[in-house]
Amino acid sequence: MEEAASEDVQSALAAATAQGNIDEVRRLARQMLAANGSKAKPQKSPPRPAPDAKKVAAVETAAQAATTSSHESKQNTSELFGLTLSREHVMGEAIWPAALCLCRWLEGEGAKPLRVLELGAGGGAPGLLAAALGSSSVVLTDGDAGLLPLLQRNLALNRQRISCDVHVYRLDWRSSESVRECCSLAPSTDEPGFDTILAADVLFSVGDIVPMARAVTALLRKHADASLLFAHSCFFDELSHTLLAVMEDAGLKLTRTSRSQEANVLEFRWSSPCEKASPPS
User: Fold this and answer.
1) Which domains occur in the chain, in start order?
2) N or C: which terminal CB in the chain sees fewer CB atoms within 10 Å?
């Protein structure tokens, strides 16, 4: 009975997300946390859990189906967003469903001269598209040092479409020093940090949520227009309620949603932008 009720609430949460009913999304997320009988926050420094292999495999299969190319040397995605991405046999190389949905969101928003940071960029499609659409600066990051050369290659392949400064950086969310160094890459203004943070399929377990939220609160500019655009494939829907609660506790409220059959995009903004929220612990 309890499992069935939980599935009903999860389905209702997905429906509310699809409808863009923000108040209902928040209510259902809190209801799921209460039903689980535990707080939204994992321990302060949780061990890094291994991703769910079946879910990762499912997402990769969907990604390959969405981006199959007949080219041997490179993967051409111009039919989608005009980006040319290097083809590599690594987990982060494919354009996963969440990244595709995030790119569609960015394309719909149009050109904006913003300082953009992409977390867990993999091949960097959303960040590169943001750069091509007119961002003032972009920083592409990933925690896997082995993916940085891929990001550099993809940047080089698309350089003709990009007029702004783009940096590639290895960011470890769990390292405060790494986060501080990354924040210093944002162009200097009266308000440090980035205007927009992009993240697509960067969470694979609940233990990743608090470290990511802590990094986001340190990196995101404290301004009403600053936003986190978080996209996740529907294979990871069960993480949504914890993510929403942790973000709200960190001072970031859900403001818009977009849902497709493959993925969700969630937009978060500061609840009180003039006051720096306490980082999640």
Assistant:
1) 58-270 (3.40.50.150)
2) N
